[in-house]
Amino acid sequence: MMYLQYFYDFYDSLPDISILIHSQQQQWHVDQMLEQSMIFSLNHLDLREVERRQFLNLRVTWGVGCSTGSINTTRVVQEWEDAPEQKEMQEAFRANFNVYKVPEILATPCCSQIAVTKEKILSVPREQYLHHINWLLETKLPDNISGRTWEHMWQYLFMQKAVS
């Protein structure tokens, strides 16, 4: 929710690029080739590439990296240990984006560490960020599940793509 609150609160005074990451310097979210160091990773981030793409998931790896690369939104009753959010994704996506037809597959790197340009943030109406914040505040899902649903929705918010 902090990312969405940041976009909402600073909508009129954003920097050219916003980088949103977890607080730990050493973490499994950062690949071994980047020394599992967020500082090392950010020091090697190509900001021109961020500007070119406008949205970039910062989870990079030579391997799979996450327990799953995709979520099947049609499996609303199936428990899956590696992705407990999967059975909640269809309703979470529908509620956050006010759509009836939810993409069957949502695929993107996990971990909700992103770089996004001011232009891309501003392409989303400010009130939409408030809608997402309110959903997080009001959902009956536990925080660990509602947060994980957002790991699969950032690319849709900023790129309108189910698969990235």
Write a brief caption for the model.
The protein contains 8 helices and 5 strands. The chain has 164 residues and is an alpha+beta fold.
User: Could you give the count of β-strands?
Assistant: 5
Instruction: Tell me the fraction of residues in β-strands, as a range.
Output: 5-15%
| SSE sequence, one letter per element | HEHHEEHEEHHHH
Low-confidence runs: none
What class would the helix/strand composition place it in?
Answer: alpha+beta
Radius of gyration based on Cα positions: 16 Å
What is the typical, i.e. mean, pLDDT? 85
Q: How is the largest sheet built, in terms of strand order? A: 1-5-2
Sheet with the most strands, sense and barrel status: 3 strands, antiparallel
| Oligomeric grouping of the chains | single chain
Alpha plus pi helix count = 8
Terminal Cα span: 22 Å
Helix fraction bin: 40-55%
- Gross morphology: globular
Defining traits:
5 strands, three-stranded antiparallel β-sheet, 8 helices, two-stranded antiparallel sheet, 164 residues, alpha+beta, 40% helix
3D structure, described in words:
Strands 1-5-2 form a three-stranded antiparallel sheet. The protein has a two-stranded antiparallel sheet with strand order 3-4. The protein starts with a helix and ends in a 5-residue tail after the last helix. It has eight helices and five strands. With 164 residues, it is an alpha+beta fold. The chain is globular and about 45 Å long. Helix content is 40%, strand content 10%. The longest helix is centred in the last third of the chain and has 13 residues, at 126-138.
